[in-house]
Amino acid sequence: MLSRLSRPKALTVCALPFVALLATAAFAPLPFSVAQPGMTANVLGENKGTPVITITGAPVRDTSGQLRMTTIEATNPDTDVRLSDVVDGWFRADQAIMPRDSVYPSGESTKEIEQHNTEQMRQSQDAATEAALKYLDRTDDGVKVTLKLSDVGGPSAGLLFSLGIVDKLDGDGSGGDLTGGRTIAGTGTIEADGTVGAVGGVALKTQAARRDGATVFLVPKAECADAKAELPKGLRLIPVTTLKGTVTALTALEKGKGSVPSC
Fold first, then answer.
1. pLDDT tens digits along 67-84
2. Which domain does 234 fall in, by range?
3. What is the CATH classification number for the domain harbouring 51?
4. Alpha-carbon distance 127 to 134, whole Å?
5. Residues β-bridged to residue 35
6. Which of 36, 199, 220, 244 has the fewest CB atoms within 10 Å around its CB?
7. CA distance 164 to 170
């Protein structure tokens, strides 16, 4: 036979498991990564003393302005993220709390993750080169492109690599620069057919871009809302879906003619 507890005692008994759960959560590692704005690099220039884009087999233009690829920095996959870190990051505009599996492949060691990211970067560079040369109709001209960017992995610089190749070889197609002398930043994967794909952490990447002098940010169209969420003052968003559309938008911006899309 069960005895009846008074209301205060019943609340106390019910609260004990909840308190224990909170205590466990406060000290247990959680499946999250803490991310913040990372480095940016001008693909038209050098990174750590080495040209990011080297082209042989065709004349190369002198360019002005900058095309800056952007990154985020996340806690290492083996770093323990606690409840206090999550709460702190939740209320900070310069940090984001992201599921660890969305940042790093699950079930892999740190070394395997580094190898995975390096391979993704290599594939992205190959696709970026193919997309740019296809756009310029130079796939059979014997043009060789070498891309080098130290300490950066993953596929999200693909669009900027392609734009850098196009700018160095052809500019806006009529003697001008794609940048119009501006510092333009952006992010987005690229397929060999020129399709631009979504990436993660765009709200943090816009902060990195503005910090490093950009006034225009190219964002995959599907991520406009994320980019606008914490958009720094003085940074203009241009949504993009293809390499051709991106070049068209930048040319319109440079010449002050035609429609420039916005989020």
1. 999 999 877 676 666 676
2. 28-71+82-255
3. 3.30.230
4. 10
5. 74, 96
6. 244
7. 10
